[in-house]
């Protein structure tokens, strides 16, 4: 099976982080899955409907893993006056280690024609709580 998150690599983690990630992975088969798909309105005009999505794995009524994929593009002019469009796909994975304290281990990868960049994601706890309330 193709892993859409193969670009996200958790490396150089502490032993504690690695242990927490492994514990969460073992709980995934027992978790409830919430998936929210939305047609990206910016992409719709240019490319047709491309879904952005968020997948939340919930165990004991608490999120333990959040996966997100978002599509974006930027159209701008470069110095010689020509227009350039750059297309981006952002993939995010967050292992939630302590929901009440908003602690997580996460990676965010932006993929584009120019290459790949990595960063640390933000946890939008309120949005995730609302998603869970809507589905349960």
Notes on the structure:
- With 136 residues, this protein is of the alpha+beta class.
- It has one domain.
- It has 3 helices and 6 strands, in the order αβαβββββα.
- It has helices at 15-27, 41-47, 125-135; strands spanning 32-39, 51-59, 62-77, 83-98, 103-112, 115-119.
- The longest helix has 13 residues, at 15-27.
- The protein is globular, with a radius of gyration of 17 Å.
- The two termini are 29 Å apart.
- The mean pLDDT is 86.
Can I get a quick summary?
It is built from three helices and six strands; from the N terminus they run αβαβββββα. It is α+β, with helices and mostly antiparallel strands.
Tally of domains: 1
Strand order of the largest sheet: 1-2-3-4-5-6
Regions with little confidence, pLDDT below 50 for 5+ residues: none
Task: Specify the overall morphology.
Answer: globular
Biggest β-sheet description: 6 strands, antiparallel
Q: Helices and strands: which structural class? A: alpha+beta
- Content of β-strand: over 45%
**Helix coverage percent:** 10-25%
Order of helices and strands: HEHEEEEEH
Distance between the termini: 29 Å
Rg over CA atoms, rounded to whole Å, is 17 Å
Report mean pLDDT, rounded to a whole number: 86
How many distinct helices? 3
Number of strands: 6
Q: Which descriptors apply to this entry?
A:
single chain; 136 residues; alpha+beta; six-stranded antiparallel sheet; 23% helix; globular
Write the layout of secondary structure elements.
Blueprint: H1 15-27, E1 32-39, H2 41-47, E2 51-59, E3 62-77, E4 83-98, E5 103-112, E6 115-119, H3 125-135
Antiparallel strand pairs: 1-2, 2-3, 3-4, 4-5, 5-6
